[in-house]
Design goal:
The complex is a heterodimer of chains A (267) and B (277).
Chain A: H1 16-19, H2 22-38, H3 42-59, H4 63-70, H5 74-87, E1 93-97, E2 100-103, H6 104-130, H7 133-144, H8 154-184, H9 194-225, H10 244-266
Antiparallel strand pairs in A: 1-2
Helix pairs in contact in A: 2-6, 2-10, 3-6, 3-10, 5-6, 7-8, 8-9
Chain B: E1 5-12, E2 22-29, E3 34-39, H1 45-51, E4 60-65, E5 68-69, H2 76-82, E6 83-86, H3 99-110, H4 114-127, H5 143-155, E7 161-165, H6 173-190, E8 193-197, H7 201-205, E9 209-214, E10 217-222, H8 224-228, H9 231-236, H10 243-253, H11 265-276
Parallel strand pairs in B: 3-8, 3-9, 6-7, 7-8
Antiparallel strand pairs in B: 1-2, 1-4, 4-5, 9-10
The chains are: A mainly alpha (267), B alpha/beta (277).
């Protein structure tokens, strides 16, 4: 059961978006976030919606997936809606009961916020749906590489991410084994109150930690044997290549961003 | 001819007040040799292995790889490129989440040109018969396949020698066979010197030279047939001998006169047929 966890949220495919340079996708996603947050009226938000829809159409990611990615943020949505509804007191009151009042402006802001958050999640999810974790790590490393000048250990951080990604399946497998071993000795994993459940996790966590530390030691030796000496002088086999599609996409994004800024200005 | 790897009066202890793990060890390995190292747990064989590529440095004496002293810090990466190491657990040697990326790891560290890395990675993967799996994630592979990927990651550096620390200990019989066949081919076709630390006497019997270690010293250093003919000595240091040798030993004990240097099943069968006819 524990093996069903998918690594990241990557869905392999061969669409235009899948084939794009990860660096461009990352930059475009950031511009998209900016676009959503500076857009202060409905038309600006509509522009953001069109942009997201276009991106999804190009990516051949099923709509069902978008709905799935929204599920975990429902509580956040509910909370912001409630706060907006009751805290905003300006505007025409639509409903009044004792000291609680809901105004038209509050309703408008709430809807606005919901759409903005939904677009935000949908747009940023597209990045992880269409980019493999390895490509994403590479892209982050390249984009942050100017920070090396400020002594930020960029390649080391990327190496840590790579190793973490590499060991997730291994550690999941190990957790499965430890759970079976503890169950075989009579550990009760599922039943009981919250307190018992927390207690049941301890005999899994501790062996897992011990083994992870041992693995880390062995891995460090193996890396030394393969001449690892940090990021300095390191080359990469996989070179990120950018093509026409990347520049066109970036241009479109900049155009949309400009449109949002323009709409804001005339409003 | 100068030996490729040489240890002279090698002493090693983990900390100053600790006991000697290796004491006064003298040994040398010629280029292209295929040597098995046997020994009971704690005899120092893994410690010796780690001296071959400067993961550990001698407390006394010296180790020379291709004429370079392993204490020479400037040349440490030259040494590690010449002598690769493969460990017991393949999972803990694989760094990247894609097979070909992992094979490229050492070359990336050495700063090789991307196009050259690509060529050498493909070459290395083909040499261990894992080329079709180049885009797989390591956790999708069997133990034997993972260990072959680990070996590919080493041979991509084009080392002259590979030290293997019980590379088959965690594998099933199929994986063990795959790995041993690969190692044998690397030795025969590419002329890579192999130092194989193992617990499996059958594997050791196939090597050209067997070294037996005990308490940080070299006990025996000879051909497999000479080493395994000394059944009592082997048992006294807690080691087994191949089944065939054991059979001959027991038969001789009960009065037969078979050649004690028999180590393969064919030799044994021939000897028995001759005896019976």
């Amino acid at each position: 059961m524990i093996k069903d966890i998918t690594l990241g949220q990557y869905f392999p495919g061969n669409s235009v978006v899948h084939r794009m340079d990860a660096r461009f996708k990352l930059v475009i996603t950031m511009l998209f976030i900016v676009m959503l947050f500076i857009g202060s009226n409905t038309i600006a938000l509509e522009v953001g919606f069109v942009f997201t829809a276009m991106a999804y159409l190009c990516s051949s990611i099923p709509v069902k997936l978008i709905a799935k990615s929204m599920k975990p943020i429902l509580p956040i949505l509910a909370l912001t809606t409630i706060l907006n509804l009751f805290m905003i007191t300006s505007g025409m009151p639509l409903f009044q009961w004792k000291f609680i009042a809901i105004t038209d402006e509050a309703v408008e802001t709430s809807v606005f916020m919901i759409v903005r958050i939904l677009l935000l999640i949908a747009g940023t999810s597209l990045l992880t749906y269409t980019t493999s974790p390895v490509a994403l790590t590479d892209a982050i490393e390249r984009l942050l590489s100017p920070l090396k000048r400020f002594k930020l250990p960029v390649s080391e951080l990327a190496m840590m991410m790579t190793i973490a990604l590499r060991f997730i399946p291994t550690l999941i497998e190990e957790t499965d084994k430890i759970m079976s071993a503890q169950k075989a000795r009579g550990a009760d994993m599922d039943g009981g109150k919250l307190k018992d459940k927390v207690k049941a996790v301890i005999p899994i966590i501790i062996p897992l930690f011990v083994s992870a530390v041992r693995r880390a030691g062995e891995l460090a030796t193996a890396m030394e044997c393969r001449c690892y000496r940090g990021g300095e002088g390191r080359t990469r086999m996989r070179q990120l290549k950018s093509g026409a599609a990347d520049y066109v996409s970036l241009a479109i994004t900049v155009f949309f961003l400009a449109a949002v800024i323009f709409i804001n200005a005339i409003d | 001819m100068e030996a490729f790897a040489k240890a002279e009066k090698l002493d090693f202890r983990y900390s100053d007040d600790d006991r000697l793990v290796l004491s006064g060890l003298d040994i040398s390995f010629e280029e292209g040799e295929f040597t098995a190292v046997l020994g009971h747990n704690g005899c120092g064989k893994s410690t010796l292995a780690k001296h071959m590529n400067a993961i550990l440095l001698p407390s006394g004496g010296a180790v020379y790889i291709d004429g370079i002293d392993t204490k020479d810090e400037d040349k440490i990466f030259d040494i590690r490129q010449k002598v690769g190491m493969v460990f017991q657990n393949p999972d803990n040697q694989i760094v990247a989440s894609i097979v070909e990326e992992d094979v490229a790891f050492a070359l990336e560290n050495l700063g090789v040109e991307p196009s050259e890395i690509r060529r050498r990675v493909d070459e290395a993967l083909k040499a261990v018969n894992m080329y079709e799996y180049r885009n797989h994630a390591p956790h999708q592979l069997s133990g034997g396949q993972k260990q072959r990927v680990a070996i590919a990651g080493i041979i991509a550096m084009r080392p002259k020698c590979i030290v293997m620390d019980e590379p088959t200990a965690m594998l099933d019989p199929v994986g063990r066979k795959e790995v041993m066949a690969t190692v044998k081919r690397l030795n025969e076709e590419y002329g890579i010197t192999i130092i194989l630390i193992t617990h499996y006497m059958e594997e050791a019997a196939k090597c050209r030279r067997v070294i037996v270690m005990d308490k940080g010293k070299i006990l025996l250093d000879d051909t497999p047939s000479e080493v395994f003919s000394q059944v009592e000595l082997m048992k006294s240091v807690g080691l087994d001998v191949p089944q065939v040798t054991e059979l001959v030993y027991e038969l001789n004990k009960s009065g037969l006169k078979l050649d004690t240097h028999i180590i393969t099943e064919e030799e044994c069968a021939d000897a028995l047929i001759e005896l019976l006819s």
